[in-house]
From TrEMBL:
Its cofactor is FMN. The lineage of its organism: Bacteria, Pseudomonadati, Pseudomonadota, Betaproteobacteria, Neisseriales. Belongs to the dus family. Belongs to the Dus family. DusA subfamily. The active site is at C98. The gene is dusA. This is tRNA-dihydrouridine(20/20a) synthase. It comes from Chitiniphilus purpureus. InterPro entries: Aldolase_TIM (IPR013785), DUS-like_FMN-bd (IPR035587), DUS_fam (IPR001269), DusA (IPR004653), tRNA_hU_synthase_CS (IPR018517). Its EC number is 1.3.1.91.
Length: 333
């Protein structure tokens, strides 16, 4: 039995805009009890002046759960952190890694790495306001700043303000000329920079993000850092999450098969349908459930058909499950 706490960031699912909404997170919880979940990034203005229910609502079954904030004004971030704590979030994470031009126009995201003292002020303001963890997600550099010293000094400055957890995406952020998608693919991965951060700051919790596509790769990194954060692989191949509790937390509870995981969502989905939520907003997150299995194409086809989804209810999910179950067993891997 491992000494790993069940309530830890050993395996995290990355915040992903338009993907890690409350419907995806509820689905993820049918597959893993312990992975640390993150919301999509929410900017401070949306919380302070917008629809709080829309941006902050979650089911307590989603915990452990972090709210990722976008912003650069210490006082506003502190107010949002207090709201997050009051709503029951376990962590507030400051986005210092998003390279999109829209985010840069608000003077937050990856461009904040140029101003470590400001990031430190933001962290201190939030830590002075709340008792929950305040963490930072960042890149290892921006534009042509490729020296390890740059990220080392950034982490050191922000750590002096009391931040104990850093989630490092092991790529530079190119602020001009690359799209967010290209920024996830073109700048080279430098895992050794993140491993070195842990050696240089042994008292800090260092979590590695970027390019992890298998449990084997993730577990190899865990010999060098405290945690891993997985993004696209966790979303596009969600059934990989069924192994997380056993592999990372030594929790040997029975693993649900794909159909059981889907059926575990039925009560939630029907309640949301009754409240007026269209089925399409929920099932778009489960399209990869049968990834790599015979029947995956039919599953995706049925649950992404706009005509079938119009005014659809749980019966469409039943139809998709029946279609997959009807596939010849000898064709299943």
């Amino acid at each position: 039995m491992s000494d790993t706490p069940l309530f830890s960031r050993r395996y995290c699912i990355a915040p992903m805009l338009d993907w890690t909404d409350r419907f995806y997170r509820r689905f993820a919880r049918t597959l893993t009890r312990h992975a640390w979940l993150y919301t999509e990034m929410v900017n401070t203005g949306a919380i302070l002046h917008g629809d709080k229910m829309r941006h902050l609502r979650f089911d307590e079954i989603e915990n452990p759960l972090a709210l990722q904030l976008g912003g650069c004004e210490p006082a506003e971030l502190a107010r949002c952190a207090r709201i997050a704590e009051d709503w029951g979030y376990d962590e507030v994470n400051l986005n210092v890694g998003c390279p999109s031009e829209r985010v840069q126009s608000g003077s937050f995201g990856a461009c904040l790495m140029r101003e470590p003292a400001l990031v430190a002020d933001c962290v201190k303001a939030m830590r002075d306001t709340v008792g929950i963890d305040v963490t930072v997600k960042h890149r290892i550099g921006i534009d042509a700043q490729e020296s390890y010293d740059f990220v080392r000094d950034f982490v050191g400055t922000v750590a002096d303000a009391g931040c104990r957890t850093f989630i490092a995406h092991a790529r530079n952020a190119i602020l001009k000329g690359l799209s967010p998608k290209e920024n996830r693919e073109i700048p080279p991965l430098k895992y050794d920079y993140v491993h070195r951060l842990k050696r240089d700051f042994p008292a800090l919790e260092i979590i590695l993000n970027g390019g992890i596509t298998s449990h084997e790769a993730a577990l190899a990194h865990l010999t060098q850092v405290d945690g891993v954060m997985v993004g696209r692989e966790a979303y596009h191949n969600p059934y990989s999450l069924a192994e997380v509790d056993t592999r990372y937390y030594a929790d040997q509870h029975p693993i649900p098969d794909r159909e059981a995981a889907m059926r575990a969502l039925r009560g939630f989905i029907e309640a949301e349908l009754s409240a007026g939520t269209p089925l399409r907003l929920m099932v778009r997150h489960v399209l990869g459930l049968y990834q790599g299995r015979h029947g995956a194409r039919q599953w995706r086809r049925t649950l992404s058909d706009s005509k079938l989804l119009k005014n659809a209810d749980w019966s469409l999910v039943e139809q998709a499950l029946t279609e997959v179950r009807a596939m010849p067993m000898e064709a299943m891997p």
